[in-house]
Structures
1.
Amino acid sequence: MIRIYFAALVCVAIFLSYFIGIHVGNVRCNTRIAESNIEHIVRDAKIMEKTNEVVYHTGTADVRRILHEKYTIAE
């Protein structure tokens, strides 16, 4: 009788370890995807900052000067 209980206990342990393994795998996958998304967001923010650096550091007087130099009426 003890052998039957032991075999049943081993089967239950294998069954539970299978489902726990699936859960751990899903959690790791979700963590990896979240980290990847964070890296993409940070990378995109850095690209936008580099792209708009001229706009961030350009004052109104500089914009007027640049537009005046590029778009004056030539005689």
Note: The mean pLDDT is 87.
2.
Amino acid sequence: MQIFAYNNPYNQMGQILSSMIPFGVFAGRQFDATYEAPEVSRQSDGRIKVNGPDGEEQLLADAKPNDVVITSTLTNFSVDFISALQTVAEFDAKGIRVIAYQEDFDSTNLREQVLIQSLPLMHKFRRNAFKARRLNQLAGIETAVKKGKFTGRKPISPADFPDFGKYYNQYMMREIGKGEFAKKLKVSRPTLDKLLEDFTKKKGE
């Protein structure tokens, strides 16, 4: 049996576990290895980029049945409870024990096993809740349209950005690229393309 630490240095709620197990049934024992969550950043086009190896995937691949994974909090896996529990379920399916100190969570306990077995129900509920919200939104829009109170979302335009002209000139002078242009406006690349099309069209009129 090996005992692994899982840290998420980008989670402000998570305490970083050192080389020694701090407390619990394995207190005082050294971790056999430590894995960390990768840094995640949002690109200018809105996509999520993972920087570096995914410690969670690597840990899931390396750990063997009867091994133990210890983390300071389940939020190191995900801030969404169902997603965090899904990660625990993947370890559990391989016979790997997961312990989270802050939630007093131990995947071998009956209480936690009931939660893991309830995951299919949780996933169905989340899907149905999303569908229900969407249907309610559509019904609300339909009612508002009938009452003449819904005109739709106002389309975004260059006029919504006070510094658009300045950045546009820098872009045309090749001082900044399109990616940096979008980043300065805090919009995605497709949105910037639409803004540029609208701006150049109005300039030609």
Note: The chain has seven helices and seven strands.
3.
Amino acid sequence: MALILDFLFTPTYSTKTIAVSDTSTYENDDSSTVDAPSLEVSIPGFDTTIIPFVPEQLNLLNSTILGITTEGEDPLPDGIYVFRYSVTPADTTFVEKTIMRVEKLQEKFDQAFMKLDMMQNCDGQLKKQQKIYLDTVNYFIQGAIAAANNCATNEATMLYQKADKLLINFVNCGGCSNGVTFPLNFY
């Protein structure tokens, strides 16, 4: 059986960690046949770092492991990450994936969503308008993720920034419209 490198991201639901699972197929089903497994990570706003990668395991990454902080776990930045898993010789045996990390934005969205009292019957039109607004924000978040997964980094960044701006507007007005509909300028 040939060596086929691959990995996937496992949700951690945390702003402080990224989980990368090795899903590679190793020669003779033995990962010990690979030499110098490493993960190169391009981090938004920081230098690219290369860290050891443990084959056939879940690799949990935090700010210290990625070289952003010297100790402890700080939230990781949102943005476009590029991961490259390689073994020696690295120039021919590797797999690379691009993702849009949105954990901080998702946390902000969750907080805004939880402020809605969906069970409240009074002022139903306002609640409906707020839900539509947050559905639109979620649409932009999912669009940013999809764009990054397809290496459309400019579109991913634009959609992320739009979702963030809409959330800031929503939070700043306290989720209310003051009788005015929410502005939805898509571009």
Note: The chain has two domains: 7-101, 103-172.
